[in-house]
Each structure stands twice: as C-alpha cells, then as structure tokens.
Design a protein that fits this description.
With 112 residues, this protein is mainly alpha-helical. Helices cover 71% and strands 0% of the residues.
C-alpha cells in the first residue's frame, strides 16, 4: 500500500503520524516522525510571499473601508481576508510558486 501525501499533510506531523500509525499498527515510526517534524520546522522557516508591511497596508485599507452588511459587504470582506490569508501561507508559496520556489525549497531542505 502506498500513500501520497500533499505538503499540508507532510507539514502537520501529528496528522501524518496518525495516518502512518493507522496504516502500520505497531510499527516504530520514531525516526520518520523526527524527520517530518524537522521538515515541518524548515517549511515554517520559509518566508511568506507577501511582506509584513504589505499585510499591514492591506489590513489598514480593509479596516478603513465603509461596509454595509445589507449589500453583501460582509461576504466581500471575508473573501478579501481569505485572499490575504492565502498569500500569507508559506506552503502556498511552494505549491504555486513555480520552479524557482521548488528549487529554493530543495536547496534549503535536501531530500534523502
């Protein structure tokens, strides 16, 4: 049996441990989990594609806008906040960043 895990699962070592333990009851996963936790820390060390200053600017702009829930502005605001959240996610940068970010990832985090 094989499992193909995406970056979100790989970065969440607790969820990955649960999957691996379910597939391999009684197996010693100590070394693998240590590697996954180290990889997760390296993923978290990658900077988001957006700067802190740009996030602050976006939030200030959103905060200064007049909203009216009666005209569906709550959904518009939520959508803009979700978009901002996606730009902040580090893993998203690897998923959508093209070859440059994949090469950067592999250079910083060598695979065994």
């Amino acid at each position: 049996m094989a499992v193909i895990a995406d970056l979100d699962l790989i970065a969440d070592s607790d969820k990955m441990l649960a999957v691996l333990a379910a597939l391999n009851p009684g197996a010693d996963l100590t070394a693998l989990i240590a590697d996954l936790r180290a990889l997760g820390q390296k993923l978290k060390a990658l900077p988001p594609a957006i700067t802190v200053e740009r996030v602050k600017e976006e939030l200030s702009r959103l905060a200064s806008t007049d909203y009216t829930w009666a005209t569906d502005d709550d959904n518009k605001l939520r959508s803009k906040l979700n978009d901002l959240e996606q730009r902040i996610k580090r893993i998203r940068r690897l998923k959508e960043g093209g070859d440059y970010h994949r090469r950067e990832f592999h250079a910083r985090i060598p695979c065994r």
